[in-house]
Each structure stands twice: as structure tokens, then as C-alpha cells.
């Protein structure tokens, strides 16, 4: 698993009054997205819930207890599915990763993404 660091600007907002809560924005440029790479977000803690939204309207969400690299996906049109074959979200002790899979369509070139992570 490789982490993508090319072509992205991460703007994180750590609320000092709420430990274990992180939110931010990631702007991706036109750099090609590699389907087997992950977008890594460092939060400083192991999230129990992650919500990641693309400006296109696609939302993926992971809850503690779900398998690694899975998520619930809500398409822009509103259809909700459990994603496991096309990648998803994986957490670790310091943040989370989102799989850059075109079918998942959460991480795409030339887009803006928003996230929240909490314990």
C-alpha cells in the first residue's frame, strides 16, 4: 500500500477544545490518481468514525468495528451501498487512509474533499 502525497493541499483544523476530533479540507490538483494508492490523513489519534465527502457529492463513511478498507458509500444521487470490493477507509493509530479507486469515486483528480474524524 502506497500513500499518495503528490498534488494535494491539506488544510486541517484541529479544534483545541475538543480532543479526538479532526476536520479538514483536501484539494487535489490534476495529478493522476493511482488506483492502488491511498490518500493518508494524519489526525494524531485513532478514529472510531470517519466521514469523507467529495465535492462531487459522493460520501463515504467508516465506523469502528467495520473491516479495514471498507465503507458505506452514498452516491451523489442518494443510493447507499456497503463497499468492500472497491476499497474504502482504513484507520491506524495516527489517522486514516482512503483508497483512490475510480469505482469508489471518493478521491479523484482536480477535486476538493472534506473530512471529519472522531473518537
What does this structure look like?
With 119 residues, the chain is mainly β. Helices cover 0% and strands 50% of the residues. The chain has no helices and eleven strands. It has strands spanning 2-4, 8-14, 21-28, 37-42, 49-54, 59-63, 71-74, 80-83, 89-92, 95-99, 112-118. It has a seven-stranded antiparallel β-sheet with strand order 2-3-11-5-6-7-8, with no helix packed on it. The protein is globular, with a radius of gyration of 13 Å. The mean pLDDT is 88.
Strand order of the largest sheet: 2-3-11-5-6-7-8
Task: Name the average pLDDT.
Answer: 88
Q: Characterize the biggest β-sheet.
A: 7 strands, antiparallel
Which value, in Å, is the CA radius of gyration? 13 Å
Order of helices and strands: EEEEEEEEEEE
Helix content: under 10%
Low-confidence stretches: none
Give the N-to-C terminal Cα separation: 24 Å
What is the count of β-strands? 11
Query: What structural category do the secondary elements indicate?
Result: mainly beta
Count of helix runs: 0
Beta-strand percentage range? over 45%
Shape, per Cα inertia axes: globular
